[in-house]
Design a protein that fits this description.
The protein is an alpha/beta fold and 494 residues long. It has 2 domains: 347 residues, Alpha/Beta hydrolase fold, catalytic domain (Rossmann fold), CATH 3.40.50.1820; 119 residues, no CATH class. It has 15 helices and 15 strands. The strands form 3 sheets. Strands 1, 2, 3, 4, 5, 8, 9, 10, 11, 14 and 15 form an 11-stranded mixed beta sheet that branches. It has a two-stranded antiparallel ribbon with strand order 6-7. The chain is 36% helix and 18% strand.
């Protein structure tokens, strides 16, 4: 049985639906009561969904962010109850993916491998981490139901929202208000971000600490995107794609028999070692590499990738990931997915350098879009005519002055409580698992804090939690991480 409570502001919002303009209320909440069975135990919880303003220096609202906040009922001491703050990425993606498929109390109706099933909808999440932590899902400006607010007669100042540093700045301020309003200052706090959200939470770790004086227990990065790496390019970026090629080719049984007969986790260390110890130095030589070495490297890359030696030589050993998606299974008439290479697509023609479309994303949008619209409006009773932006208008996006990797290092150095968990799917071709490992290795050049990092890999893609087996494993990994790093009773000192 579900009960609903509307605040006064929410009542005004309902009335506003019948006015001439279509606007989101700036500050409102709707509260409903629910229950879920997690790991065999029944849990009652409160869902609060609504909007909270972003203010400028003069205290005027310049945006309204939509959020959904879950709290477990009958908790005697909320100060010992962790708070998990969740973001997706994009930039420009709503916080729908992890909300309705990973950590929340409701998940999509999909099959066990993550493919859409009609009729669309949601069901209980038996593996949600709501048993050990309260959770808030935040939609940044122009994503989900969140919107910027233009001043009268003026354009929105996009520089305040749409860039790495602007995004971190206003979200840190917003979180200060949220934590204050909900009396969570004494709770252990965690931030989780998927994809670009990984960049976001690396930066937020220091902004929350040094600008808001809010200290965290953990940062969780799910399939993180490292723009420092993407914007650098060169031998390192190109070489560390190889282990992903190996994983995807292994899944599709496109590797040589001597590799294919081994388990994936036996094969990947071989490919990783070759990429780091041999391929990076070879690619660093560029056009001055000797012909003998070039042929030897191309042969080994073919061995670990499922592509032909000729294809690799034709591209001077630098194989774009787009080419790999297009051509790995060309002889079978299929392309493979970008974010999850288990998914197959079919193009207009076999030849080319990149697929016509992302096979996995079109599949996911099948199930996520109707589910989030139904869930927020009909189960959580948040009524609005505003469109839910799965992907919102946030571009152009300013990637300048990206210091987020070092932001995380500084935050960890200053805060001995702060630990990091990184989760990646082996078949993710956009933010590959080996790029995530590389990022982890680069955060702290001293190596003094490497025991505070954890990496977990899964036999799925970018959203590893869509596969039921990995939904359970990945949630269990977050649950164990939170239990290990919260309420330790130890002093925060070296």
């Amino acid at each position: 049985m579900k009960k609903t409570t509307l605040s006064l502001a929410a009542l005004f919002a309902v009335f506003a639906l019948y006015s001439q303009s279509r606007k989101l209320p700036i500050d409102t909440t709707v509260t409903t009561q629910h229950s879920v069975t997690i790991n065999g135990a029944s849990i009652n919880y409160t869902a609060t969904t609504g909007t909270q303003p972003v203010w400028d220096e003069m205290g005027e609202p310049i945006a309204s962010l939509h959020y959904t906040y879950y709290t477990r009922n009958n908790v005697k001491d909320r100060t010992k109850r962790p708070l998990l703050i969740s973001f997706n990425g994009g930039p420009g993606s709503g916080s729908v993916w992890m909300h309705l498929a990973y950590t929340g109390p409701r998940i999509l109706k999909i099959d066990d491998e993550g493919y859409p099933v009609q009729p669309y909808g949601v069901k209980e999440n038996p593996f949600s981490v709501l048993d050990v932590t309260d959770i808030v899902y935040v939609n940044p400006a122009n994503t989900g139901y969140s919107r910027t607010i233009p001043e009268s007669g003026k354009e929105v100042d996009r520089e305040k929202f749409f860039g790495i540093n602007a995004d971190i700045q206003y979200l840190a301020e917003w979180l200060n208000t949220f934590v204050t309003r909900n009396n969570r200052w004494r709770s252990p706090k965690y931030i989780v971000g998927e994809s670009y959200g990984g960049t976001r939470v690396m930066g937020l770790s220091l902004a929350l600490q040094n600008q808001q004086w809010m200290y965290l227990n953990g940062v969780i990065m799910v399939s993180p995107a490292d723009y420092k790496l993407y914007n650098t390019g060169g031998a390192v970026e190109n070489a560390i794609s190889l282990p992903y090629f190996t994983a995807a080719a292994w899944h599709h049984k496109a590797l040589p028999p001597e590799l294919q007969q081994k388990d994936l986790l036996e094969v990947l260390p071989e490919s990783e070692g070759y990429a780091v110890n041999t391929l990076i130095p070879a690619l660093a030589k560029g056009g001055f590499i000797g012909e003998t070495e070039k042929n030897t490297v191309a042969e080994k890359m073919a061995y670990y990738s499922g592509l032909s030696k000729k294809e690799i030589l034709d591209q001077n050993l630098v194989v774009p990931v787009q080419y790999f998606w297009k051509n790995l299974l060309k002889d079978r008439g299929y392309t493979i997915g970008r974010l999850d290479s288990r998914y197959l697509g079919t193009d207009r023609q076999l030849a080319g350098m990149r697929p016509d479309y992302s096979a996995e994303l079109t599949s996911w949008l099948h199930s996520f879009t109707p589910a989030i619209n139904y869930y927020l409006q009909e189960e959580l009773n948040f009524k609005t005519d505003i469109k839910y932006n799965m992907f919102g208008p946030v571009r152009p996006w300013n990637n300048d002055d990206d210091n987020t990797r070092d932001n995380l290092r500084q935050a960890m150095a200053q805060n001995p409580y702060l630990n990091v968990l990184i989760q990646s799917g082996y078949y993710d071709g956009a933010t590959t698992y080996f790029q995530a490992k590389y990022t982890m290795w680069q955060v702290d050049p001293s190596g003094n804090m490497k025991d505070r990092f954890e990496f977990k890999g899964y036999r799925s893609g970018h959203m590893m939690y869509l596969r039921r087996e990995d939904l359970q494993k990945a949630n269990d990994d977050i649950r164990a991480f939170i239990k290990r790093t919260s309420n330790t009773g130890k002093s925060a000192k070296y």
